[in-house]
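Chapter summary example: a protein plus LQZAQKY5.
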Amino acid sequence: MTPHGTRAGEDAEDLDVEEVLALVNNSNDLSGPAGRAETDSRRASGQPATSPPPDARHHATPWPEARATAGRAARATRRQPVSVPLEAALGLTLAAPLDALTDLPSFDTSAMDGWAVAGPAPWDVRDDGVLAGHPVHAPLTDGEAVRIATGARIPPDTTAVLRSEHGRTDEKGRLYATRDVVPGQDIRPRGQECRSGDQLLPVGALVTPAVLGLAAAAGYDTVTAVPRPRAEILVLGDELLTEGRPHDGLIRDALGPMLPPWLRALGAEVTAVRRVRDDAGALHQAITTSDADVVVTTGGTAAGPVDHVHPTLRRIGAELLVDGVKVRPGHPMLLARITETQHLVGLPGNPLAAVSGLLTLAEPLLRTLAARPAPEPYTLPTRDAVHGHPYDTRLVPVVLRGDQAVPLRYNGPAMLRGIAAADALAVVPPGGVRPGQEAELLDLPWASGGIGVCFT
Ligand SMILES: Nc1nc2c(c(=O)[nH]1)N[C@H]1C(S)=C(S)[C@@H](COP(=O)(O)OP(=O)(O)OC[C@H]3O[C@@H](n4cnc5c(N)ncnc54)[C@H](O)[C@@H]3O)O[C@H]1N2
Ligand code: MOO
């Protein structure tokens, strides 16, 4: 069982994601300005949630603001902490403090292979020995020694542990030390690392492989954590093939294979990947029957004859939080609140535009739902000049070489060749960057070396 630590009189089980996030990320002002306040006041006034009229859609959101809005969007969503077996907890955020369930070490322990000795040398060595995992041994009396292994319990009344390389026996089998013996040497006293009840890690800590080890050592079988947000992927497009080579105007679905592991790396549990034909009724059915925290659609965000995402969101009365972003590629991306507890991220169909939507909208949204801390922003000089868009931010695949970001070719919206070789995306402001100019970088989950590399 997992204990329920308390914080200032609160039951940890009552902590919701918002509180955990506040603890994880308390230096950021996440209370947020416009978007949230506007949403809340609209709700409070009882007005129906509606998308803006079509003629307002060209008022795309600036890229930094779109990310901030996505990061704030889920803050009001209450998600109850869950008890998770250690083997399933990697990458989650602790929703209760990790308090030691035992002293560590939980008994006086030998730090070395050698002898437990009592009193001054020489010592008569007992016939038996003490191994790790053995129960308590009979007390030693002065002048006695017993062979002992690293990790074994120290017999009562032991003065010190003599390492095997620091002892020699005479012809009568008596043991001598070849250097001074300091009382207590090479004994790890019970409670040296912690006492039962000590807080080992606070609420908000990320469960890393090391945390799993610490939790196990401290007696845990489960930890109390923020659950992984559940994401369902709806792949739209009648032109998509799931196998073989493109033919007769049909193309391979590149997003079906790419999105599930990417979303997992961003902290989501992917519950399903469903292919939805270009039919408004089918899309309506798929969205309204989903029980995922986040529905991710691909394609159908623009204004073509079979682009059904906007009309469907209007039909269900979804609240459009972001409707188009001033970013290239990916400008038709969108974020909507479809129920009190569910969001929809609409990724454009062009594959690199979809990646842009993942990093712009899905990443901050999932991060908030999972109560993960925001990555520290960082910049590097770009080796080469990168053309900018006149008004919009560009996201350009780069490889990191030394302390420089090297822009890659094949960075068009429909291309994956650049991103497949990349370490990061460079954020290129309107107007572009000159050679040697610093640009912000968004690490790709597998290149960052962070917990995200664990595609569990
Ligand atoms: N009149 C306008 N047309 C378009 C605009 C615009 O502003 N005005 N924006 C363009 C941009 S930019 C993008 S990006 C796309 C976004 O289109 P949709 O989200 O509606 O996506 P689709 O039309 O369904 O597909 C676009 C493109 O991507 C291919 N695709 C779709 N899904 C997949 C997939 N799973 N794997 C691989 N490729 C996929 C699809 O076949 C199309 O070629 O709109 C532009 N048009
Ligand atoms: O979003 Mo589109 O793919 O910019 O070019």
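Key point: The pocket of molybdate ion (ligand 2) is lined by residues 328-332, 348, 350, 353, 413 (CB under 6 Å).
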